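Support request from a user on the community tier.

User writes: "When I paste my structure tokens into the form, the page sometimes reloads and wipes my input. The last time it worked, I copied everything first. Here is what I submitted, just in case something in the input itself triggers the reload:"
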């Protein structure tokens, strides 16, 4: 009998050691999975930022090139106007000396100037269209960046609120890791959270609360608190022992 009990005890210890090892392996795998997920998320964020930076740099480079072309076109327009003014002055000076160019020369000059003006106008319109398209693209990228920042901020706020809720629930109902569903406190937890799962229970609880609704300045009562009323911290060791 002693040998049989010893074998059972050894088998039980062996089984417990095996289960502990499996649990540790499972926890290690879970930790590794979380680390891999976090690493992949970080890599993805870095790649997205690099792509955005490269796209913005490319767009800025193209926009700078377009502005340079616009400046060159404007300079050409100014040169053309200066040539027209210079020819007019020289023509007036020659007329005072009694020298007049033939009409065909004036017509050829005007045709050439009109052709250049048409070409420069088309280039100006083309460069303006390119600039507008690039500005729209840059504004779209900036809007997407603002939207992503807003989503990140909202996600952090949600995580913060969730963490606060978990802390409050832990103070009110205990740590869920220490108190599983089959624990003695579970019926109380279900009772206090029944309104989240039953409309009838929500109506009944609200009806009971509404019977005690009073203004904030009422001398014989106070208004319903907006959230959970958290318990005070223990004031002595005996109370702290009972709470634990």
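"...and here is what came back when it finally went through:"
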């Amino acid at each position: 009998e002693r040998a049989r009990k010893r074998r059972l005890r050894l088998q039980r210890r062996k089984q417990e050691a095996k289960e502990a090892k499996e649990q540790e392996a499972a926890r290690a795998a879970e930790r590794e999975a979380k680390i891999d997920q976090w690493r992949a998320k970080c890599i993805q964020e870095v790649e997205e930022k690099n792509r955005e930076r490269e796209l913005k740099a490319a767009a800025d480079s193209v926009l700078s090139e377009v502005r340079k072309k616009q400046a060159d076109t404007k300079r050409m327009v100014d040169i053309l106007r200066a040539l027209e003014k210079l020819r007019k002055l020289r023509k007036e000076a020659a007329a005072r000396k009694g020298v007049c160019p033939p009409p065909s020369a004036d017509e050829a000059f005007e045709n050439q100037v009109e052709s250049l003006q048409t070409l420069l106008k088309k280039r100006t319109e083309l460069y303006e269209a390119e600039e507008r398209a690039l500005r729209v693209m840059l504004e779209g990228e900036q809007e997407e960046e603002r939207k992503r920042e807003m989503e990140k901020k909202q996600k952090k706020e949600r995580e913060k609120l969730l963490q606060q809720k978990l802390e409050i629930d832990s103070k009110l109902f205990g740590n869920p890791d220490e108190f599983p569903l089959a624990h003695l406190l579970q019926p109380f937890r279900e009772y206090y959270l029944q309104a989240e799962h039953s409309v009838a229970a929500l109506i009944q609880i609200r009806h009971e609360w509404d019977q005690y609704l009073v203004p904030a300045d009422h001398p014989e009562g106070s208004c319903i608190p907006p959230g959970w009323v958290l318990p005070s911290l223990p004031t002595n060791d005996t109370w702290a022992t009972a709470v634990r």
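Agent notes: The reload is a front-end session timeout and is unrelated to the input. DSSP finds five helices and no strands in the chain. The mean pLDDT is 81. Escalated to web team.
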